Description:
Number of strands: 20
Strand content: 15-25%
Strand order of the largest sheet: 2-3-5-6-8-10-11-13-15-16-18
Radius of gyration: 26 Å
Distance between the termini: 117 Å
CATH architecture of the domain at 153-270: Alpha-Beta Horseshoe
Largest sheet: 11 strands, mixed
CATH class of the domain at 153-270: Alpha Beta
Number of helices: 7
Structural class: alpha/beta
Oligomer: single chain
CATH topology of the domain at 153-270: Leucine-rich repeat, LRR (right-handed beta-alpha superhelix)
Shape: elongated
Amino acid sequence: MSGNSLLCVFLSMLLLAINPCSSTAVKKTIECSRVQGNSTCFIEGVSFQSTADEYLAAFPVSSHLIIESSEILHFAPHLFDALAETAFLTLKGSLIPAVTFRSDQLHSLRIDNTGLREFAVAPQENRNLNTLIINGNPLSAIPPTVRHLAALSILDLSNNQLEYVQLGWFQTLDNLLVLDLSANRIARIDVPPSLRLARLKNFWANHNQLRQLAYFPHFAPSLRRVRLVENRWSCEWVAQVRASIWTSQIQVYGAEYVCPDVVDGGLCCYEGQWFNEMDANVQQVGRGYSERGRLLEAFPRAESLLATVDSGENDRESRLGQSCDVLEQKYRRLVEEKELLERRFVNTVRELERTVRRLTAELSEAQDKVRWQH
């Protein structure tokens, strides 16, 4: 074989290594573990050994795809590109610490209990995704690029570890109907004075660490239902918004009856020295994204995670370490949820006791009236 021929072969191999998605590469379709009657495809046990394997992967043709019990360090844009005619994607019960969303065909994306620490959106307008649900993850910040998801009508970020939210990032979400921020660790929600979420009807902010919420409920002129319990509201703020809630005919779900300080209109509120100390701690909340999109206290980037997978042995050790971290986080979250459920149970029992006493009194009064008439 001549020198030129050897050079051509070498260059061809080099190009294939650099671009595993070239036309000469053979795609490998991932099979469904099982298929339900409504054509929902369940995939289990996915684990890529290298980035090249990811580029060569092709998901089965299914409108609804559920990936579970898998380990994917970074669900990157090229994996979204590998989805064939999928409109509804669910990632659950897996180890997927990083997701970078980019898709022109998905209508719904759910990320449930995957150890997600970093979520990003490709910086281009998306008018297809209308439902985004991220639940049960150690996610502490959302990116400003969420503003590119212009078609969202449901945004559920409940049961994570969010600490700060900038509502101004949702200004472009003209179709947003439901915003669920409940059961996080949110100590501050920034609201620009000009913000108007014109179509927002359901807003859940319960079970956080909020003191106040500026321009509430004026930033949501169509708001009809709200949950606010289990926060650290300022008594002054509660007194101010009570009238606005009443005049706007907003239904407030949930009520608190046992408070360490003051209960006002069904909400616990706080004032005095204890609250001033708590407010000082709120000012230290630093993890989150700046207006320009820089992660202030970032978790390891997906590229860094992938870079550690350079050999089979290191790969296994890394995955085991990640799995241990996720299990530890799940345990801590379960402990926190247990305490929360116990408080809710006590409040529910006391509320039921009050209701029974009221009904008993009303029944006795009605019986007395009947006897008096006869």
